[in-house]
Write the structure tokens for this entry.
Amino acid sequence: MSESTQSPKAKKSVALSGVVAGNTALCSVGRTGNDLHYRGYDILEIASTCEFEEIAYLLVHEKLPNAQELASYHAKLAALRALPEPLKSVLETLPASSHPMDVLRTGVSALGCLAPEATAHPPEGARDLADRLLASLGSMLCYWYHFAREHRRIEVQTDDESIGAHFLHLLHGRKPSAHWVRAMHTSLILYAEHEFNASTFTARVIAGTGSDLYSCITGAIGALRGPKHGGANEVAYEIQSRYAGPEEAETDIRRRVANKEVIIGFGHPVYTISDPRNQVIKEVARALVQESGDDKAFAIAERLEAVMQDTKQLFPNLDWYSAVSYHLMGIPTSMFTPLFVMARTSGWAAHVIEQRQEGKIIRPAANYTGPENQKFVPLSLRS
């Protein structure tokens, strides 16, 4: 075969890993190997002290709110928790076997038909829609959850101040403890934003075409649905829940590592030293253990953290102890990734607004590896 007819050699990586694909003022991640900043604020300074609503405001509205602005924001979000009756009807048609991520994807898409974004896409309008989604995603999820299982139409308005407390109240039918509310604030902050990850990049690609915010968020949910992205926290708990105790867990995981199996919940494509979010969420899980007295999942998770460091020099990522934390708050495993959505919608919306300001369509090139100079054969002559 001549040089001109040979197929080009495939590039070593076609996953865009390490490739700079655009500019953002929203987030910097992994520049020192284990750092994360939202609009310049260190995650280690804000995750355990701020309310999630402060950080959602920072991302969507571009600044940390003062006390008066935060109070007004709480009131605004509380007023946006209600669901239109046609949306409730859509949610009621979804079977109990639906994955909650599919429920949120459908709910966002339906709301986009019922309350569409203005064609001109002004930034303030997009921010208002982002706030409505942040306020109502928990309502959508819990309304479907109770109707699908009990055929019970719940009232989605609560007097809880925060998004996390509102969700837990609707899920369990009672006000959550202060420890649980604080745990939700920290968890949602840690999940709120992470630069050009797969779902965020999906949202920006859609935004670059000039599409509406609902389409961008729906596409991002679809990307996050995948087990290699948002579904990792569900898989992490499935791993942890296999075992009766730490010794059994260590024996099995060492065997799996020896067999070159991938253990979900460890390592990260951006961080090289450690995931800075892990040290925060681990302490959240530890505090929940102390409150509940149930240390089984935490003990297994901590033992496997040591095993993975010893055998593979891999560190746990945010998903590993998030799974423990959500389990201790009685959240069904299939809702772990939807909680990710409830947080990351703030980052997704901010990226959509930023991409619109860029005003460019995202259209990368591909390295073609198929055959060259194929001779066309008419249909009548094909054997």
